[in-house]
Structures are given as structure tokens and as C-alpha cells.
Amino acid sequence: MAPRWLVWLLERVVPGPRIDDVVGDLEELHRRRVDRLGRGPATLITLAEGAWLVLVHTAGRVGRGASPARWVSGPELRLALRLIRKQPVMTLTSVVALGVGIGIVAGGYSVFRQGLYGELPFPNGDRWVNVESYAAESGSRAPVDLERLMLFRSSAPALAYLAGTRTAELNVVHDNGEVERIAGARVTPGTFRHLPYRPLLGRLLLPTDGAPGGEPVALIRESLWERRFSRDPGIVGRTVDIAGADHLVVGILPDEAEYPSEGEIWLPLDEATLGADTGGPGSRFIGVLAEGATVDQALEQIQGLSDRRAEEVRGTEALRFRVVPLTRILVAPDIQVAMIVFMVVLLSVLAIIAANVGNLVVARTSRRSGELAVRTALGASRSRIVGQLFVEMLVVGGLASALGFASAGVILEFYDRVLDELPFWVDLALEPGTAAVVMVLAVLAAAVTGVVPALRATRKAPGDALRKAGRGANLGVGRVGGFMIAAEVALSVALLGSATVFAQGFQRYVEPSFDLPDDRVLTARLVLDLDEEELVPGGSATVSDSLELVLRDFQARLAALPGVSAVGAASHLPRTSPYPEPLELEDRPDLVTTPMVALGPGLLDVLEVRPVLGRDLDEADLRPGAPAVALVNESFALEQYGTTQVLGRRLRLAPTSEQDEAEPWREIVGVIPDVMEVAGSRDAGGVYIPLTPRRFVSVALRVDADPVAYTGRVRRAAFDVDPNLDVSDITRLDQVGAENRMALGAMTSALSGIGLVTLLLSLAGVYSIVSLSVTRRTREIGVRVALGENRGAILRSLLRRSGLLVLGGAAVGAVLGHRVAGLRLFVFAVPEPGWWLFPGLMALMGLAGLLACWIPVRRALSIQPVEALRYDG
Amino acid sequence: MGKETLGEFELMVLLAATRLGEEEAHALAIVDDIAERTGRSVRRSAVYVTLRRLEEKGHISTWLGEPRAERGGKARRHVRVESQGALAIHESRSALERMWGGLDTDPETA
Q: Are A269 and A226 spatial neighbours (Cβ–Cβ below 8 Å)?
């Protein structure tokens, strides 16, 4: 079927008796094209044709029954090309501006579409869904018991299969003793039955693989086979030490097998228990919908089965389920909001650009009002003249869309390079949908920028227009022009202002004000998610113990390495912007929100940070029952207490919900410099509490040589503590968060670039429209000078309206920009905009407006009144 | 006013509509028929315009059929060639045949 919105639109613009013909034929042709060309290209052609039909029928209505076919006759097109050639600067400006704008929006739309609505790139990929479970009462994520999962498997006909998968980083010990950490996944073997992958060698996983007591087996990817085993076919049937146990390699999967993990190793999960550990990190349940079944049916069935079981079996937790297409990874509300804001920003850019081109065309059309009036007087119908101007802009739009295509391609390539963490199914290339958007945007932009000014110019009776054109009377910018000026000034001030604020925030995020020993510190990330029996042989440890045992052991091994002078751990490292938490200060009624770091002993030592007052945290603070203490940084002390003399004051974490008990008051025992936070921002404050058990811990060690040389030793130390210990992101301190920074840097520079371009365009737009309006009033100015009016008074009266528009727009933009900057769109803290920023931008816009008036006004004031009266502008 | 003659394209459209018959003659089928038989690419808009002109002249009449699924629930506009249209075709043919009388138009032998 042709896109619904297009049909809807056509049904509104096509005259009643012809709807069946036009829409029906479009539908019928679309079907034929789908059969012949496939869905994508067919949709593209249908969209283009439909958009054209919408335009010609709209124009036909405006032109009061004139035949749309007469609009774009060959001579009209040739005339359009000749006129465009006569005005190369205007054409070039319009094409470049619209092209870049269309490219930005089309590129952004592609990211948006792929991010939110991508599909797995294999047959039936749209049938794969995520099954998520939440506690019915609290709404937080909750694991599903095995009984219920098995029930779903056997009794939900909408699900053809229910798989358990768990991504994992696995330690592989090679024959030479080297330990390599390789991304992989554990997966229920039946999953492969629903995937199109065939092994290059050996076999896939079988349902019997992974059963208790069975021989451990593994599938490996072609890339690993090539990299570590030189494509030796004998690898199949050999054992490899993976995650502390020998695994028989049973098959090799080709590199295009990117699902259910983009890693290089697949291990089987027990088919009968679906992996049992339903709540572990990286665990997910994935359903394959039965043919013809919908997501809603699957949800309804498993929710019904779950509810019935919760009623029948006492003590079964009530759960709420969510079934979403697997590729909807970006459904988290905050990400959606960020993406929508991003799209709105991009569309604003296009709106500004279109408004600008519109301004230019208004200016040009009004200069041609005499010519148009002559044509009208000679018998050209209004629709013909409007059509003529429309065709001119359509040619501009066509050129712009070609440029838009090219720039969207460049933009997407840039994003594809920068965002290397994208899921494998996201392919940032121009797709038919994006191309259709480009074309629709180009035609729309042509329609708005060509038809609206043309309609305005041809509204008057030809006699009037001729007389007025002859006298050079004021065509003016009118209400529409005025609104366009104000709107584009507002948008560009808002955009550039907020982009500047983001850029500042980013700059501070990248360069902490505190001087850190970047070139001598190595950091690593530890995930403490070990099963009890895996933790220590024969031990029965909890996560709390794992911190004690594993982390201590690991740190001790690191400290024992030659050349290591200090080892420490914390929940966050510098440059990772710890998230703010609510805090209660003793004797204060209000909560304060400030970044919070859980700090282990030794980290400040590694970073060469000494407390400016009081002491560092030590081993004793971590022991159970030790007095509750905290450190604060200087910014926090100054901001909250107005002094750094805060030792002995007390604070505590605010309870997160009503059920939580408040923790005991913590005494501030030390004040340290601002190390972790974003200097100068509202998140500059920082509170440090002793490290508590947690899943993710960052470890840092200071060494006396190149830290990167220690990578292998750190891995080995982790392996010696436990073969399954998950150590990742081993990197120099200055590389911490580098990928994030790069992506954010790209986004910030893109925003700043866009802001700057729009500012320049706005300045040009304001200049063109204001100078036009003043030029059109040359005659009036001449009369006023002839009547002896003071030149200053004339200038003031001319500047008043434009000035009000520009400043009014800038003021609205300042408020808008302030609001946008206040949204938490990034992981880094965004500073308060400097007081000078928005007034500065307002002043800049005002100055441009002033200049735009000043030059033509001066010219008008300097000519003799008699000449001014004769002026035919 | 003298008798109106048919243009070449008008004649083609009328012939296609006659051949297809009332049940099968509609704009898209006429486009396909002409394209298939002449090997020319035919603009749909030209067929629409021609059909409208022929209807205004009284050579054809059109009527909407039943809504159809393949047209998104929209009806098809069928074309009926009226007796005046049939007469016009006949006259065009006779005129052309008269003009051809005695001429050898085969490019091979010319």
C-alpha cells in the first residue's frame, strides 16, 4: 500500500470526483512497482509521484481550476533556467543553504530511523523480540522463575521459541600462556535453529550441548579462527581453555553471524534451564514470534500465563511483562527524548534555512513585481505566474536535493565512523526512506519558498501593481516577513546559545582543571558478578565478600608487581562524571544534589591528590561498624558552607524511597581538591564515601614506566585471582571515557557548526529583508527629507520596527536557548550559561539589523529629494 | 464549425478503449495497451487529458465501478466508447485510407 499519510493528503487536495482516479491509480501503480522493483524503490517512486500530485493539485486549487499540466511546460522551465542563470549569487546561496539544511535533516533522520526502528538483517528478523520482566509492585526489573519461562515455552503459541542469552567477556588462555579477553555469549542452542547462519566448518550447537555433565563445547567466529589459529581446519575437534575450562571447538561461524552476539565465542546454555540465572548481567530472554503472530499477542499470552501462575501458586511474584522488537534498543525514555530533541533541533535548522531562502525569494519577487504586473496585464493568469515562480524554485530545490543527498552521505559516513559502538543492524547509509525525505523536503521547500511569495506578489489587481511598481511604492516585509525575521533570529540565537553552552560543558568534561598524572596511571574496570562457587574454590561468598576477597586479592597482586607505586579503587574515575545523588545536610531543611563517588583507600594516592584539610579515607573506614565518614571537595564545601573549614559537619545520603531507612549521619573528615568533577559547573561539588560492595569497580595503579606496558600483567593478575574475573577497559587514565568523549565531541562540534551556520544565515537573512524594506521606502524617505524632517528622526523611525523584530526574536531565542541548555541531554554536566552569552548574541543580531538598515538608509538620505521622488525601486 | 477530426493520440486512445471493451477499459489499461502495441512510452497524464477531451466531445462516457482492494478501496473509472466515438474512428480510418490510396509507403521499396 502507498504510505497512508500520502493518501490522506491526496484525499484532501484532489477534487472530490477525481479522488478515485488519482488515488486509486497511485495505489495500483504502487502495487505493480512493488512486484517489479521491491518495496524500497517502489515506495521511493510512489512518494515522489504522490508529493508531486499533492503539489500540482494544491496549486490547481489555488490557481482556481487552472490545469496543473500547464504549470511546468517546457518554455516555463527554460525561462526558469534563464532567470536562474541571470542571478547566480542568489541561486547559489539558496542551493547551498537548502542543500546543507536538507542534508543535515536527512542524515539526522536516518540516524533517528535506524536507531529507533532498525530491523535485524536476515529473513524473519522482524520476528525477534525482547521479553522483559518487571516486578508488578515496584516496577523495577525482576527476574522470571524457570517454571514460568518453561510455561511460556510450552503454552504461548505466539512464541515459536524462547531463548536465553547472556553476553560475556571470556578469558581465553592460549597455548603460549597468554590470557586474552574475548567477547562472547552463552546462548541456548536451539536459538541457532531460527538463525540463517551455517558453519564454515564443523556444526552448530545442538540441544544436548550445555546439559549438565556434558562435555563443554564452543563455537568460534571466523575472525578468531583467522587471528589466533591461522585458519587451521584442525581446530575443530581440539580443546581450548575458555573461562577456566577446556572447551571442545565444534564449529566455526562466518563473520556475518553477528547475532545473538557480536563477540567471537558462543558457549551453550542448558536448554532445559534456559541458563537458569535469569537476572544476571547481560542476561536476556529473547522470543521468536510464530509466523503471523504479533508482539501484542505474545505479550497478552505470556502475561496471562504469568498472572494465572501467580494466582495459582502461592509465593509467586506478580510480574509485568514487556515484549518489544529486538531492535528497539533505544526505547529508554530519556534516549527517546534526546533523539526527539535532536530531531527538533535539526528541523529548526531547516526551518531557519527555509525562512532565509524564503526571505531572499520575497526580496527577489518584490523586485520583479513590475515584470510580473506587466505579464499579468498582458493576460498571464495568476496560476501561470505562480507556477512560473514555483518552477524556478523547484529547479533550485532539485539542485539543493542533489547537494542534500551528497551532504547527508558525508554526514552519515562521519557518524558511522565516530559511533563505532552501534549495534550491528544499524547501517548508517542513505536508504530509500531517507531519499524520499530528501525529495519531499526539497519539493516542500520549493513550494513554500516559491509559491508563498508568488501568491503575495500576485494578490493585487494588475493595474494597482503596475502603478505601485511604477512608483516604487513600499511592498514592505509585511506581517509574514516580520514574523519570519523574528522567528529565525529566535531560532538561531537559541541554537547557537545552547550549542555554545554544550560546547563549554564538553570542554570542561574533556579537560579537568586538576592536573592528573595521566601518563603514569593505568586503569581497569572490574565487574564483580561471580557465582558463589566460582568465586573461590570451596568458598561460599556473597558479592559483599567478593569485594573483600577479589578486589583485595587483585589489588594486592597489582601492588606486588615491580614498578607499581600505588594501587586504588573507586566507583568512578576522573573524567567519567559521577551522577549526582540527593544528600541531606545536618540542620538544613532542603536536599542538595551533588555527584557522589565511592572511594577505596589508595585512589587519591594513585592520583597524587592530598587532602587540603583533614585526612584521606583509610582501611579502617571500610570495616563493618566503623564510624560513618565522608570527604567533600572544595567546591562542595564553599558552595554549601561558604568555607572550606567543614571538618566535623555531618551529611548523609537521602533515602531514595519511602521504604528505605535513612543511613547514619556521616562526619566530614577531609576536604580534597576538585578531582573528579566538571569544574565550574553546577556539578562541581563532590562527596566521597568509603567504597561499598558494588558490581562495577574501577581500579587504578600508578607505575614508573609506560602504563600500557602493564596491560598484560594486569590481565594475568586478574586471571590468577579467578579465571572468570571480568576485567575490561584496561587503559591509560587520560583515555578513560575517550570513546564517549569522541562521540560527544562530534555531536558538540556538529551542534556548534550548525549554530554558527544558522547564525550566519540569519544575519544574511535579516540583512536582505531589512535592506529591502528600507530600499522600498527610498521615495518616502525622499519626501520626508524634502519636507524638512530631521534625518535622525527618519533613521529612528526606520530602525524602530526592524529593531523591535530583531531584538524581540533574540529575546525569545535567549529564553528558549536557556531552557534547552538546562535539559540534561548529555552525560557531562552542562554549565550555567555565562551571563554574557545571550545578551551578546542579542547584541550581535541587533548590530546586524542596524547595519542592514544603516547602509540603505544612508544612501536614501544622501540622495536629493527630487531624485528620491523619481526613484523606482 | 466544420466536422472535428481526431488527433493521432486521440485515435489511439479510442482504439485502445474499443479493443479493451467497456469492462476492461480504464486509464492504466489504455496506457499499457498503447505502450505495448506501439512500443512508445506513454505519459499517463496525456491519457487522462485525452480521455477528458474525448468525453467533452461526446466520443466516450465514463463510469465508476465497484471499490477494489488493489486500488486501496478506490473504484476504477471505466471507459465506454459511444456511437459518436465509433463513428469518429471509422471516419478517421476512411480518411486515412483515402489518403493512402495508390501510395507505396514501404521504406524498403520507396
A: no
